[in-house]
Specification:
The protein is of the alpha+beta class. The chain has three domains: about 70 residues, OB fold (Dihydrolipoamide Acetyltransferase, E2P) (Beta Barrel), CATH 2.40.50.140; about 80 residues, DNA polymerase, domain 1 (Orthogonal Bundle); about 80 residues, Alpha-Beta Plaits. Helix content is about 35%, strand content about 25%. The longest helix is centred in the middle third of the chain and has 28 residues. The mean pLDDT is about 90.
């Protein structure tokens, strides 16, 4: 995790830790956000009597603790596991979740630019943390068009490259409507009539794709970012197909059921 805070935490601050060593009456942890070491006494592990500390924590396990006391001269930080309530734990885990979502984007950018990821991360933090508490919150605003990395002070090329990575990551998933068209015509110019209808369908929207299945059957697929525009496109297609119907020509559309 690149995310680091400077100095020491505050008393009663909720911190993200990793268990490093276990002793019969205490647990040593690393405060992952600060790079400092801390200690959780057995009395602060859980309420009640504890017979075996390993029933509650294990080495390398990540835990959420509350800061009780700090002695900067000795480098001692006393922590509590049992005094963290469920709301505080959930809030801290959500914060760490945001950190973990942002860092892969930085790593992808570093790989693309062939530069150390931590170097790029520190450049971003220097500028972005003036306005945001976490990179991910900034990235969401960039994706929504509400933030400009270059205006925040980032180098023009770095800002452009990172914006491209962010937009790719936050690209909304597309939805698809599929179905089968059946058309036949006994008109003298039936073949041309069918070709004209297919051409009209394709002109409705770039989101439409038509594939010939054989025997007057066609696969119709509509791919869009939201159901509302996709459904509007489908209605236009159905209206065109309806106009194809007459005494010698028929057209129908059967929508494929979504899973």
């Amino acid at each position: 995790m690149f995310y680091k805070k400077k100095g020491y935490p505050e008393i009663e601050e909720i911190v993200f830790c990793k268990v490093t060593k276990l002793f019969p009456n205490s647990v040593f942890v690393e405060l992952l956000e600060y790079g400092e070491q801390g200690l959780v006494h057995i009395s602060e592990i859980a309420p009640g009597r504890i017979r075996n500390i390993r029933d509650y924590v294990s080495e390398d396990r990540q835990i959420i603790c509350k800061v009780l006391r700090i002695d900067q001269q000795k480098g001692h930080i006393d922590l509590s596991l049992r005094r963290v309530n469920s709301h505080q734990r959930a809030a801290k885990l959500e914060e760490i979740k945001l950190v973990n979502k942002a860092e892969p984007l930085v790593q992808n950018l570093a790989k693309k630019l062939q530069r150390p990821a931590e170097e790029i991360y520190n450049q971003l933090v220097e500028k972005i943390f003036k306005e945001y508490s976490h990179l991910y919150l900034c990235f969401k605003d960039v994706a929504a068009g509400n933030a400009d990395l270059e205006k925040m002070g980032l180098d023009k090329k770095l800002a452009s490259d990172l914006t491209a990575v962010i937009l790719e990551k936050f690209k909304p998933p597309k939805i698809t409507i599929k179905g089968e068209i059946k058309m036949q015509s006994y008109a003298p110019d039936g073949v041309n009539k069918i070709k004209a209808i297919l051409l009209s369908l394709e002109k409705i929207s770039p989101s439409i794709d038509i594939f010939y299945l054989g025997g007057g059957r066609y696969r119709l697929s509509i791919e869009d970012i939201d159901y509302k525009p996709a459904e509007q496109t489908l209605r236009k297609a159905e209206e065109i197909l309806e106009k194809f119907n007459d005494l010698v020509s028929t057209a129908s559309f059967e929508r494929e059921k979504s899973e």
